[in-house]
Write a sequence for this structure.
């Protein structure tokens, strides 16, 4: 058996040897070889339905949804209207094709017999705007809307994203660009704790790699496993809670289209992934190793890394159809990382002390959706995660860890052509622990929640979505009730107005709960109004908002210090409050210039709050009043080259100057960044290759993100991004060619 496995894996041995040298991969090397073995034996008995979708004027209909009736088999047409739909179904079937702005279409097929590309023509429906879509507060990037402003690939392919989903969302309206010294999504005046990430219906406990003071961290998400995103900047659905500002709802891919193997390598590491497509199921796996040692030896950094960041990880996904009406997904991921950085002493910013971090993260996620009938759909999800940090901070040992177990169930019922009702509940049980030297703390929380939401469309030009959510905290012995409401009003061909409002709750930040404080829920009320116009591959969106914060946690009597690890908090209560107001603009144009896709986003925010240990009502130090992003993307079929450029601007953030008469009244210089990415696409035999190079801060602009002061206020040092100018390059290889518009 071992000889047989070795023979099957010989083509990949040289690649795998480098990965298997790490301790983690050695431990799980058998898993990777077994996955490669599965990939080498394709016994799938499936058919491929191919087609081209166009309108009455013979123009392609991009991003239309195509599915087989009474099954979970489905796909989406590409930018040219072409689609390829794998299925194991046999006999007479019926394709259902939908696209916003067009009347639904059907087409009879017999899988296995329709070998030619079928032609489907959709008729325009100028009477409705896709049945009117609720959009206030939410930017969708899913496969079910032609009105999609962005797709997942769009936010990843721009130059300033650097391949990170969360980093890419810093280009979206309403999001702060933090410059690289902070970790998290900062949305419309909210801090990083106010945004929650959801993956296939379950809360992601640790969406980012473990934090290092002053060094922003990337997210843990694999962008190639994400098929859709709904990013709510406010007024989000009653299905979710525990986020005062924002929810990022991610959906993983369904069954892989075909068996494939891919290899990626760059100056900082190596990635191997693959998929095995079987008749009614699919297996995906990925292994990666990252070491920034070679990269930082060539690139100048603003931080002293005495131990270059290094990580290794494994992940696997199993996707299976249960009959023709159900789809099951299971995923597992493991990652180990370590780094060592000299960081400013929080008690004396004029000194540096070593911060040696070791992290282990393990997570499992499962979901199941089932069409009980044409009108009733069941969705269930469960997740488990465990995260552990061991830190040596100077001479002090610092450990922290958390675990989360959760479950969710939802029922969606289409009562009529005008009414859809969704109801369900969830339970989350999680545990946090932390020990800093001799100071230890921990807590266990169980959160129960129930929700109900309706989508009612009494007229073609009006849609209403009322919702209600209720939560109970076992730790706080308190409950809450949060009403939500959103509506959309069609104003013309391709345009609509939207309104949304709601009440949102969140438990206190963990730093208080770990020290034994039990303040009540924090709360905020959202008010949003927007206008959206989408037509002929052009999109315009403007949204105004107001957020009224109440019951924020406040430390009474404690002297202000910017040290986030402070423990002398004094009396803690819910007397804090604040507000955030502003507007966001979005414009995207894919039609004016051939092969050019550009978008512009601008955000204005006016916010102040009195919370934590603030001395007075002030704008927080993570806020930039003005944020501007310009993104341009170009693809040349003739040159086999994709080019992306981005310009990012953020006005100066407040910082604490102990000598200033105004609390948080000083501001850093404005942040500016120009980035540029070039990808060259070429085929060697049966191997499709993409070579890329990414330049960040191309002008080498010396950004300063703020200043730190010594305890006596006499000395100050600048807060700098991890790097000024940087270059990153790599190559991606695949034996299964993918569409060029995916780059």
């Amino acid at each position: 058996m071992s000889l047989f496995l070795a023979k099957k894996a010989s083509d990949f041995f040289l690649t795998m040897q480098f990965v298997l040298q790490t301790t983690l991969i050695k431990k799980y090397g058998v898993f990777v070889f077994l996955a490669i073995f599965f990939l080498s034996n394709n016994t799938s008995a499936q058919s491929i339905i191919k087609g081209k979708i166009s309108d009455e004027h013979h123009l392609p209909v991009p991003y239309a949804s195509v599915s087989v009736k009474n099954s979970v088999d489905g796909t989406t047409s590409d930018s040219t209207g072409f689609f390829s739909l794998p299925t194991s179904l046999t006999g007479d079937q019926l394709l259902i094709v939908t696209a916003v702005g067009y009347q639904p279409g059907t087409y009879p097929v017999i899988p296995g017999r329709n070998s030619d590309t079928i032609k489907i023509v959709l008729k325009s429906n100028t009477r409705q705007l896709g049945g009117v879509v609720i959009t206030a507060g939410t930017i969708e990037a899913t496969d079910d809307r032609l009105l999609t402003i962005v797709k997942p690939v769009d936010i990843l392919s721009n130059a300033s994203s650097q391949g990170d989903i969360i980093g890419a969302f810093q280009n979206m309206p309403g999001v702060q660009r933090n410059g690289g010294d902070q970790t998290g999504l900062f949305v419309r005046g909210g801090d990083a704790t106010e945004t929650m990430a959801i993956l296939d219906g379950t809360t992601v406990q640790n969406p980012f790699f473990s934090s290092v003071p002053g060094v922003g961290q990337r997210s843990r998400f694999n962008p190639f496993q994400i098929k859709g995103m709904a990013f709510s900047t406010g007024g989000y659905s009653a299905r979710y809670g525990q986020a005062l500002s924002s929810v990022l709802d991610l959906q993983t891919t369904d069954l892989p289209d075909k068996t494939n193997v891919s290899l990626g390598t760059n100056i900082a590491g190596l990635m191997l992934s693959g998929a095995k497509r079987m008749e009614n199921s699919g297996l995906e796996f990925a292994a990666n190793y990252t070491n920034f040692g070679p990269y930082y030896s060539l690139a100048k950094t603003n931080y002293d890394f005495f131990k270059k960041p290094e990580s290794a990880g494994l992940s696997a996904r199993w996707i299976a159809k249960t009959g023709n009406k159900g789809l099951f997904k299971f995923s597992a991921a493991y990652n180990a990382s370590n780094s060592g950085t000299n960081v400013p002493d929080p008690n004396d910013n004029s000194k540096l002390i070593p911060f040696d971090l070791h992290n282990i993260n393990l997570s499992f996620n499962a979901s199941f959706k089932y069409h009980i009938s044409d009108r009733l759909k069941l969705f269930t999800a469960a997740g488990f995660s465990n995260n552990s940090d061991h830190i040596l901070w100077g001479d002090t040992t610092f450990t922290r860890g958390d675990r989360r177990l959760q479950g969710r169930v939802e029922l969606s019922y289409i009562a009529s052509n005008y009414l859809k009702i969704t109801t369900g509940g969830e339970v989350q049980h999680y545990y946090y622990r932390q020990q800093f030297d001799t100071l230890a703390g921990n807590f266990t929380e169980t959160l129960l929640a129930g929700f109900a939401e309706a989508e009612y469309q009494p007229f073609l030009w009006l849609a209403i979505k009322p919702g209600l959510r209720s939560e109970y905290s076992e730790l706080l012995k308190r409950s809450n009730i949060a009403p939500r409401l959103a509506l959309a009003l069609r104003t013309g061909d391709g345009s609509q107005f939207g309104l949304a409002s709601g009440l949102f709750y969140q438990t206190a930040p963990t730093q208080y709960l770990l020290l034994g404080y039990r303040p009540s829920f924090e709360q905020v009320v959202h008010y949003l109004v927007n206008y959206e116009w989408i037509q002929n591959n052009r999109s315009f969106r403007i949204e105004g908002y107001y957020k009224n914060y109440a019951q924020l946690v406040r430390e009474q009597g404690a002297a202000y210090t910017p040290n986030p690890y402070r423990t002398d908090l004094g009396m803690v209560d819910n007397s804090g409050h604040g507000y955030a107001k502003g507007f966001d603009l979005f414009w995207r144009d894919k039609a004016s210039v051939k092969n050019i896709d550009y978008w512009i986003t601008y955000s204005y925010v006016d916010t102040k709050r009195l919370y934590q240990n603030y001395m007075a009502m002030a704008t927080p130090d993570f806020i930039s009043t003005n944020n501007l992003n310009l993104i341009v993307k170009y693809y040349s079929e003739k040159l086999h080259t994709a080019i992306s450029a981005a310009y990012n601007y953020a006005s100066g953030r407040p910082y604490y100057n102990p000598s200033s008469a105004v609390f948080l009244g000083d501001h850093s210089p404005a942040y500016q960044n120009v980035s540029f990415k070039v990808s060259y696409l070429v085929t060697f035999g049966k191997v499709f290759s993409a070579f890329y190079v990414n330049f960040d801060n191309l002008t080498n602009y010396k950004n300063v993100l703020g200043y730190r002061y010594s305890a006596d206020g006499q000395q100050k040092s600048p807060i700098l991004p991890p790097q000024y100018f940087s270059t990153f390059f790599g190559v991606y290889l695949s034996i299964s060619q993918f569409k060029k518009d995916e780059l």
Q: What stands out?
A: Confidence is low (pLDDT under 50) at residues 1-44, 126-132, 140-149, 737-743. The CA atoms of residues 551 and 574 lie 4 Å apart.
